[in-house]
Amino acid sequence: MREDRVDEPESCAVGHVSESAARTSAAKSPDRLLLAISAEMSRQELLAALKLRDVGNLRKRYLRPCLQEGWIEMTIPEKPSSRHQRFRLTAAGRNHLQEIGVGAAEPG
Question: What are the DSSP E strand ranges found in 1-108?
Fold first, then answer.
């Protein structure tokens, strides 16, 4: 029985590290989006690639900051709410990926 108790703090510590890592990745949400985006992607494709469930969270933490920085662009900028809207990486986004040390693929 005591052996089980000895294991508990370890598993808690591992869980704590995961939460900490999750907070670190959340702080760099725009970078996660840039790493996940390939070619032109819809909101639903981005949600799946980032393993998110909430479109509001996607917009607030990922899309809006990247759009403001000019790292991604909309395929239909005159209709931001269109169900056909897709997003793609810009040259500035590829440059940012190189700055943070991640090679970006050439546009496809």
Answer: 40-41, 72-74, 87-89
